[in-house]
Specification:
about 550 residues, alpha+beta, 5-stranded antiparallel beta sheet, 23 helices, about 60% helix
Length: about 550
């Protein structure tokens, strides 16, 4: 810890001055607090709430801690609403970098003076943030561009703070049980990866080009062009996007923009990123969205993005369908499918809480209540029940809440679920197409074979662990009666599933081995799935009849 002595002392002093001495104690920083400070609280923040004090302290501690607060503001599954609201107010602003430093950075990175690279270069920055600042410029052909230059000390400061944060996370993890539940070390590791990626402007350039490719066939979406000959990891040159800020209602009306259509188009653009391309802009706030008078939407700032795989997207689609239908059991299954647990989760209590949540809004439309409010309360419920979302899913929730907020600003009657539902339904249809089912069943049969081979080893390990540590079983009396019936049903389905997987595997092998069937593969897959489904249904019906009504 002595390597960063002065920074540790600065952090401890800042926390204590803002009445957050308990955080200094929890992180092992209390010994770095100057003796004269004691428990004194800064007069300015004495009347503040704890979330407000946290925000002010993070602002004072500088760019890395501001970025950490911004990341945490996207995690309503981890923090109560009061903290989310305050951390969302964090502004990533910093004093401008002197022109001489900007000139030196451009010369070092691009090998020439700004006057040689650009026909015009505005030395007064358009914006100055913690990692870099943005300047307007023009190329020789008259193209307007923006040039983003990384601050000279950004890497050193961020690297030092990340080392400190990782060390503090390790100490907290060892000393405080809730930190292990919340996986504080994992959160800090994830934050470190994200922030280091933001330091490399070439990544943002690649993100911009990827979005441009995604929307190449949608003329209503504008993505800035990257000028690679003037771009490195420290300098980024992009086409300058102009237009009306999407939340400037007076200017939109003056330009004759149809705000209702704009709300739906904007939401559709973001939803297509998530559900079609699975690569999305993770910070679509009004400052990053500009509107042309003809209704086209320009996106900027591609430093924060999210990406999900096909399985996670499908699980989230399950959640959306259950959410829309307000089916508590399906909702519980879907949420458990996209969540990870923190410690021991009482699933019976979780499902009962979801039933109460659904019943509370059963007589009100989703349009009336709003997605953001319902999702916020549901995420609070997840937090209470010790369930935690992966970063990507938390980002999707944040993005959906943001676009609903913008949509309602543009059109008070905007209904996010009306735009969401077609995507969810299309994904469900695609998943249950015969070819998709055959592919999943073939994968399942391979997984079942692997599991069968690994099962003896896993059982031996489990038995050895029980022998060493003992075994505790906690059961509710109310759960015992349905548990027996559920076990029988699971057994029946497992038998039918194994047989089904074997049949699908046989059909697939038959088709694959004989080239004469290649041209008829689609029809054979459909027929094979139909036959297998019928046989499986018969087997399951027979097993259920033998085991009784449970």
């Amino acid at each position: 810890m002595r390597v960063h002595f002065s920074r540790y002392q600065e952090i401890a002093d800042t926390l204590t001055r803002h009445g957050l001495g308990f955080l200094a104690g929890a992180t092992g920083l209390a010994k770095w607090v100057p003796a004269r400070r004691g428990d004194a609280t800064h007069a300015q923040t004495r009347s503040y709430t704890v979330p407000q004090r946290v925000r002010v302290a993070l602002e004072e501690l500088g760019p890395t801690f501001v970025k950490l607060g911004q990341l945490l503001s996207t995690r309503p599954d981890l923090l109560p609403p009061a903290y989310i609201i305050e951390l969302s107010k964090l502004q990533d602003a910093a004093p401008p970098v002197p022109a001489a430093d900007i000139r030196d950075a451009i010369q070092r990175e691009l090998g020439a003076e700004p006057e040689e690279l650009f026909a015009e270069f505005e030395w007064t920055p358009l914006a100055s943030a913690s990692i870099g600042q943005v300047h307007a410029a023009k190329l020789e052909d008259g193209t307007s561009v923006v040039v983003k230059v990384r601050r000279p000390d950004a890497v050193r400061q961020v690297q030092e703070d990340l080392e400190i944060l990782n060390g503090l996370a390790t100490r907290v993890d060892r000393a405080w049980a809730p930190a292990r539940e919340y996986d504080v070390r994992g959160i800090v590791r994830e934050f470190s990866r994200t922030l280091r990626a933001e330091l490399d402007y070439s990544r943002e350039a690649h993100n911009a080009e990827r979005f441009a490719a995604q929307f190449a066939d949608r003329p209503e979406v504008l993505i800035p062009r990257v000028f690679w000959e003037r771009t490195t990891s420290r300098v980024l040159t992009l086409e300058r996007m102009t237009g009306i800020k999407i939340n400037d209602l007076a200017a939109l009306d003056a330009a004759g923009v149809d705000r209702r259509a704009l709300a739906r188009t904007g939401a559709d653009i973001v939803l297509s990123m998530v559900f079609e391309h699975r690569f999305f802009h993770a910070d679509p706030h009004p400052g990053n969205l500009f509107v042309h008078p003809d209704g086209r939407i320009a996106l900027i700032d591609f430093g924060m993005v999210g990406e999900i795989d096909e399985e996670l997207r499908d699980r989230f689609a399950d959640f959306l369908i259950a959410f829309t239908l307000r089916n508590p059991d399906a909702l519980a299954d879907a949420l458990e499918g996209v969540s990870v647990t923190r410690g021991n989760v009482d699933r019976y209590e979780f499902r009962e809480a979801l039933r109460s949540f659904v019943a509370l809004y059963s007589d009100r439309s989703l349009t009336e209540v709003g997605f953001a409010r319902l999702a916020g309360e549901m995420l609070a419920l997840l937090r209470e029940q010790r369930l935690q979302l992966p970063r990507e899913v938390a980002l999707i929730f944040k993005v959906l809440m943001m676009i609903e907020g913008i949509g309602v600003q543009l059109d008070p009657q905007f209904d996010l679920t009306a735009v969401l539902t077609p995507y969810a339904r299309r994904l469900v249809r695609e998943r249950f197409a015969p070819a998709a089912i055959a592919t999943r069943l073939a994968r399942a049969s391979a997984d079942a074979g692997t599991l069968a081979l690994e099962l003896p080893t896993r059982l031996r390990r489990a038995i050895a662990a029980v022998d060493r540590n003992g075994l505790e079983v906690h059961l509710r009396a109310a759960e015992l009666e349905p548990l027996v019936g559920r076990a029988e049903r699971i057994g029946n389905r497992l038998v039918a599933g194994v047989i089904t997987a074997a049949l699908i595997n046989a059909v697939g092998n038959f088709i694959a081995r004989d080239s004469r069937w290649k041209s008829r593969q689609s029809a054979l897959v459909s027929a094979g799935v139909t036959v297998v489904t019928t046989l499986s249904g018969y087997l399951l019906w027979t097993a259920r009849r033998r085991s009784g009504p449970n």
